[in-house]
Please model this.
Amino acid sequence: MGCSMFEPSERSKGVSYAIREVVLPARKLEAQGIQILKLNIGDPIAYDFDTPQHIKDALYEGAREGHNGYAPSEGYPELREGIARREKQRNGMDYAVDDICVTTGVTESLQIFLSATLNAGDELLVPGPTYPPYNLMTYFNGAEPVAYRTIEEENWQPDVDDVRAKITERTKAMVLVNPNNPTGAVYPRSTVQTMVDIATEHGIPVISDEIYDDIVFDRPHHATASLAKDAPIITFNGFSKVYLVPGWRMGYAIFNNPHGQLDKIKDAFMRIARARLCANSVCQRAMIAALDGPQDHIPDMVRRLKERSYYAYRRLNEIPGLSATRPDGAFYIFPKIEAMDGWKSDKDFVLDVLHEAHVLLVHGSGFSPEYGQGHFRAVTLPSMDMLEEAFNRMDSFMGKRLP
Model:
């Protein structure tokens, strides 16, 4: 009897993740001894940031004190109480512990929520461009991500008319990513309020991804639920970015459910959360200490990131054939390739920059086929020296390619 090849599932065939997939050709160059300057991944620890010492100490203490078994599926009550306190102090929100579920990063919050919400043929309204798993996980659940336009000339703010036009009877929820990955946009209070009003008018909940909430420069971050206390809002947040622990995979989902509109969805979410057991137990203990301990690493990190982001904005606009809007938060910038004539696609451009200039970027179409094409994402996390070298290489590259 011959050996037949097992076939992967149909749903797996569309799975691709642009941010990680550009790493594969970079690894081949590194294997040849070529140094690659990596501006592709939003991991502060890969650059010159480090986890605060008291958080590292708390991880060890959590293990030493015996928190090495399974945690409650929803997360330790003390951690959920700490998250609720942060929401009260920062955003004026009154959440019960049972409104909060600790997850393995924001990505698991998203996976669980979409699995609990979407059926085949449903639509999820997502920003264009957006963090790729919003598109990927929606497709994976047999539904359709529908991108609403964000306006590059207005610092990537949502086009509210396009949002209204894209809502249909199949729309299950609206997504806000604020501060935004990949553009670095931060939405003013009035914009967040308008988006919530549109969702409320159409009877759909809002998914608000706020993982970069404390990484803002010259304009404040407004938590979506704080502007819509009567509306059904699901907030995704976590510790990876602000507390510099991306590899620990610590996120959470919060349900703002004032009139019980989300009761069934929340019940489904919690049932799936129980089925996957729990998020990492000792890391949860450390996050209790992260919330209760010193916060002074945050303003220091934001100061450094602001300097780097603004430097990246200036340098990229000086490179022939590129233009960029200034980020207001997070640690990304999303430049436009004005001189696309020399390349078939933004992915070809990114691979060309990798092979010729040895700088690793991520192609914009990986964040939205429609609104990301002709762009690329760069992180602004590296030291000033590394950023300067990367932009010098790109400047030289573009100078050779342009007439």
Remarks:
- The radius of gyration is 21 Å.
- The chain has a mean pLDDT of 94.
- Residues 53-292 form a domain with the Aspartate Aminotransferase; domain 2 fold (CATH 3.40.640.10).
